[in-house]
Amino acid sequence: MRAETWRPSEPMPSQLEVLASRADHLYFRAGLGSGKTWTGAIWAAAQVALHSPKARGLIVAPTYGMLRDVTQAAIEELWPRCVVDTFHGTELAYRWPNGSRVLLRSADRPGRIRGVEVAWAWLDEPGECKPEIWQTLPGRVRQQSRRKRQILVTGTPDGFNWCHDYFGEPGQRETVDGVGLHVVQARTADNPHLPPEYLASLQGIFSDRMAAQELEGSVVQLEGQVFSEYSPAVHVVPFEVDKAQPTWAGLDFGYRQPAVNFWQKVPGQKNAWICVGELMPRDCTTEQLGSRIVAEGWNLQEVWCDPAGDSATTAGRTDIQALRRLKIPAKYRVNSQVRRIAFGLEVMRAALSPADGSEPRLLVAQHVASKGGARGLHRSLLSYSYKGRSDKPDKDGESDHAVDAARYFWANVAGVQRARQTGRKAKGAVQMMPHRMTGA
């Protein structure tokens, strides 16, 4: 393997604080696009150089998809080419010139890393990982080496979860067991290498509450009313319906209380949608619901559903198939981010009250609000609440069905556009901080 002289770009102050820390467990808690992935990739490379030859390292991400799309993308951009070229797809490992191996693993099944023994580890996006990962990972970092063993955690906070319980707020401290902790916080705005329009584009897709988390790196407590941003005086407007216009829908399956809401684009308002109709029947089979949808006469483009609707029932068919037999364009995505309840709810909150102060993008037609009843979307947006002090909504059997139907639509239409924008965080953080390498 040919050696290379490798020189990455200069780190920002928050990144330098992480790279210079000697704490046992580090947490780089930062907003989107603030250079978390760059920090993790450079920190991992530094661990290889500082530890004994042949010492092993471990990089863990929530899923193998994230390992491939985010972690490996950064590694290929930042690590020496002679290392990148050694990647072994079966072993999921890189080999460095000093004999060190860096293993890549997914956190979706924490038990699979129990047999691993390493000198250091980097865990990315802990909020997307099961709490069991932290019951397993520290015990794997025990390989003997000349360098102090450390674990780096990088990610955008996700409420008062297990990661916050363990690390706490920014600063340095010790646990009762003498483990040194160091939390470094960084904001999206702190990264001078991002394009000027990047921050503005993100501010337009978050609600005020979540902007503090996603852009400032702060931990936000979600409790009480889920859609506190929803105001009938602002979001309920008169609207003349034309069923011939292109129409989209969100659909929540269920025999007892299924729900469908219909959405059209608001003329003259970019990315704004208005709920123009809904169906809230009780004790209704999917076939019966489909017939009612057809009878409504909407010019349907897409009907977004729960992916679970494509699971076979005892009758041998799926709910999705039942809709498609009726020529209803039923669709779904299995992407884990899009399926997350928290993701869909935040897309809706951001549309109700964009953090950049722009006009609301989620509206409800006046006739829908007045006729919807207790289970309708209007009443549901007013009553849908978090359960206790948790960040999980209360499934009360009434308000949740209309919201779930709306969530499927917003997550898969507006949410996918948002996911593509926020997905630039790793790519932007890497590409806007170029490194230089010269052959030795």
Write a concise keyword list for the protein shown above.
17 strands; eight-stranded mixed β-sheet; 440 residues; seven-stranded mixed β-sheet; Rossmann fold; elongated; 18 helices
Provide a compact summary of the structure.
By secondary structure, the chain is an alpha/beta fold. The protein has 18 helices and 17 strands.
Description:
The protein is an alpha/beta fold. It has two domains: 4-192, P-loop containing nucleotide triphosphate hydrolases (Rossmann fold), CATH 3.40.50.300; 232-422, Nucleotidyltransferase, domain 5 (2-Layer Sandwich), CATH 3.30.420. The protein contains 18 helices and 17 strands.
Q: What is the 3D form?
A: elongated
Overall mean confidence score, pLDDT: 85
Strand order of the largest sheet: 4-5-3-6-7-2-9-8
Q: Please provide the count of β strands.
A: 17
Number of domains: 2
Described by strand count, sense and barrel closure, the largest sheet is: 8 strands, mixed
Give the second-level CATH assignment, the architecture of the largest domain: 2-Layer Sandwich
- Give the low-pLDDT segments: 424-440
Give the CATH level 1 class of the largest domain: Alpha Beta
Radius of gyration (CA) equals 24 Å
Give the number of helices: 18
Distance from N terminus to C terminus (CA atoms, Å) equals 12 Å
Q: Could you say what the CATH topology of the largest domain is called?
A: Nucleotidyltransferase, domain 5
Classification by helices and strands: alpha/beta
Q: What percent of residues adopt helix (DSSP H or I)?
A: 25-40%
What is the strand content? 15-25%
